Every structure is written in structure tokens, then in C-alpha cells.
Amino acid sequence: MSNQTTKPNLDIAHSQVANRFETTIDGQTGYISYQDRDDTLVYDHTIVPQQLGGQGVGSALVKHALDYAREHDKKVVPQCSFVASYINKHPEYQDLI
To answer: For 60, how many CA atoms within 13 A lie in the half-sphere containing its CB?
Structure first.
């Protein structure tokens, strides 16, 4: 068991209009935004409000975004350092870059 407080049942929505995956907890919205370039998704910003920090929200958003890319046969450009760092720590996503 890890001692991190994680919220595994995050309700993450895909807002295609805003080009982002987002989740709202207690009125605070965290999101990861992307640019869709044909067969590549450029993940450019991961934003998690301070009130939601340390709960695994950012990681859950990145994992969701990477799984989405995989399901849709897209490559990923991790422009955001948080996404790049997540991929470094999770070698199973290396093939997406």
C-alpha cells in the first residue's frame, strides 16, 4: 500500500471544444490541455489548483490523457514538464513519444 492520498475514482471529462481533459472536485477544476496535430497530441499544460495539489489529480489526468492517445493510435509530444516527468517514471508509456 502506498501512503499517497489518491482519488482513483476521478470523473475525468474530455472537452473537445476546449481541447482538454478535465476534472472538477469541490468546485476546483484541474485539467491537461493539448493541441491535436493529425496523428500527434501535444500535451502542453497540466493545471491543478493548489487546493487539489498532492492528491494525485495531475497524475490521474496525465494517465488518462496518455491512455486516450494510446486508444486512438496517437503519438504524444510531452511539451509540459509534468507530462514528460510522468512518462519518464512510467516506462510503459515510452512508446507513445
So the answer is: 22
Q: Which residue type, as a one-letter code, is found at position 54? A: G
Q: How confident is the model at residue 23 (pLDDT cuts 50, 70, 90)?
A: very high
CA nearest to 68, candidates 26, 44, 25, 36: 36
Are 20 and 27 in contact by the 8 Å Cβ rule? The answer is no
What is the number of helices (H) and of strands (E) in the chain? 2, 5
What the chain holds in terms of domains, given with CATH numbers, is 13-90 (3.40.630.30)
Q: Identify the pLDDT of residue 8.
A: 52
For residue 57, count other CB atoms closer than 10 A to its CB: 23
The reported pTM is 0.89
